[in-house]
Amino acid sequence: MSEKIFRPPDNKANWRIRLYEIIFEADTPKGKLFDIILLWCILLSIIVVFLESIKGLGTKYSFYFHLIEWIFTILFSIEYIFRLLAVKKPLRYALSFYGVIDLLAIIPTYLSLIITGSQYLIVIRVLRLLRVFRIFKIRPLLAQAEILTRALKASRGKIAVFLFSLLTVIVVIGTIMYVIEGPENGFTSIPTSMYWAVVTLTTVGYGDIAPQTPIGQILASFVMILGYAIIAVPTGIVTVEIAEASRKSLTTQVCPECLKEGHDKDAVHCKYCGVKL
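The structure corresponding to this sequence follows.
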């Protein structure tokens, strides 16, 4: 990576560039080594949580498990601070997807000092393993993951409209079923009836609440059939967007300014902020 990106005025900026290359870039030997060590630490920390949850082991080796958890948490905390120091806009990184995941990966251990058992939530560190695709250059999987990500982003507006419409349908159906069946048949309130509508529309069908009257059963049959049609809508939306995203060829190069990926292979500047790649 060229040092012209940061235009450093002093040695301190040069130090930040080197730190950025090690932490954020997997193309350099030092960067790849750092990422591999990081992945192993994440895996080991998750294994420790799994072992601690086993009753016999958790009781017998409780002290050692907690000690190892704190060692990993301190290491990840230092790494998180270095990531903030390496970028020009720390807040932007902190609010990014990986930035939020990195923060959530260390909070549970500190939270366990207040809330007992919250340390088990550190299994969220498994999400940090998503970096493995970029680190080891698994190109087929990288390409597919990028396509899926772009498709989901492109379809979020349509999905939002669909979910709002679905919520409206659930409110109407739940209210009608409440009027038809009433508390005597288990539909004790409109929220309870809405819960039944959600379970029926999604074709889950727990069976804890069921209509007893003929009219209610007719409505339930209609809702069941409607459920199959509703399931097909988001599937179709995402499928179209996946087909559209597949036509484009992008890389996973990270912009040093805005930390975004998904640039064209022949891109010289970031398409989001304009900084030279």
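The chain has two domains: 3-137, 145-245.
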